[in-house]
Amino acid sequence: MRKVSIQQIKPGNKLAKPILQENGNVLLGAGVELNERFIERLRSLGIDMLFVEDEFTEDLEPPEAIQEATRQKAVNAIYQTTANLKDQSFMRGRTVAPEMGRTLKQVFGEIMNDVIVRDDVMVNLTNIHVTDAYLYQHAVNVAILSGIIGIAKGFNRQQLEELGIGALLFDIGMTKVPAELINKDGPLTPAEKALVERHTTEGFDILRKQHDISLLSAHCALQHHERFDGSGYPRGLKQDEIHLYAQIVGIADVYDALTSPRPHRKRHTPSEAIEFLFASGSTYFDYELVKLFCKHISVYPVATTVLLNTGQIGVVSANNSLAVHRPTVRIVEEADGSRPSSVYEIDLKNEVSILIVKEL
């Protein structure tokens, strides 16, 4: 399979990976043949990239961070938790969601079980979902990324659970923000920005009242927008004043937000997001934590379609952990636009004059 922009999709292309709804269920499954109506509908749902079948890359399977069933279960748990919080009555300022912590602890445990058995430590987030699913899929992605960094930091089981639940629920305060602001196509007014920024304190207020959720987990909601140099919100905390869990969640949040399509901008590539994180080290984030985080991110994930400086188009077929910017690329189109007569690959680690110009 290969991952391509929806702009390059043509009628007759077949999906190689499913497209997910907001509750984690499948909207369109693998093997579905796309027609003009499907393609236009997917565009209207905010989908900008798809995995499609291709004869030159039929053996390529991007390694999933977690199993599809685990992701669907996790997304559905976040979806149901959010729906319950929206529906319940707020009596005397108290918000109680019975067994929220136990449910999310079980979900995060299954995520970690999938992560631990992986052969590699380079993360590739491959899920494709409709725009309305962003908050739920984003929470799961942040939990995956945070958990991997927690493992790299040597956290014990209790610490991983506290971090994981905090990561799954860090944006729960967004349930109090009007949907039209979350999905606004354009800059926010100062009043709208202030309302959105309240999601950190709103989220903390929700989580601190749950009897089975650690206060440290709740601080992931409160502090994930604090920045290393004191420029963040809501309290302008600096450096070690920001809890380590919240620092980890903050980095994971920014990375996944940058690499996801949003109503007001196109998605950034993983390499662009990593460049941003390195540039923000010791300013927005602790530089050592950024380095640790980026060690576990695939810069050019398997199945990514790329343009080379030779004019050839290829699909990433393998990553090299010792040279993450120099993957192995399978050529699917020559510089003159023709298809290769047979399958062949270029290992960019060895071909130093050949460069990736951009992702397609």
UniProtKB/TrEMBL annotation:
Domain named HD-GYP is located at 104-309
Q: Which InterPro entries match?
A: HD/PDEase_dom (IPR003607), HD_GYP_dom (IPR037522)
Gene3D superfamilies, per the entry = Hypothetical protein af1432
What lineage is on file? Bacteria, Bacillati, Bacillota, Bacilli, Bacillales
The protein's name: Metal dependent phosphohydrolase
Source organism of the structure: Paenibacillus curdlanolyticus YK9
Q: Which CDD domains match?
A: HDc
Keywords per UniProt: Hydrolase
GO function term, MF aspect, one: hydrolase activity
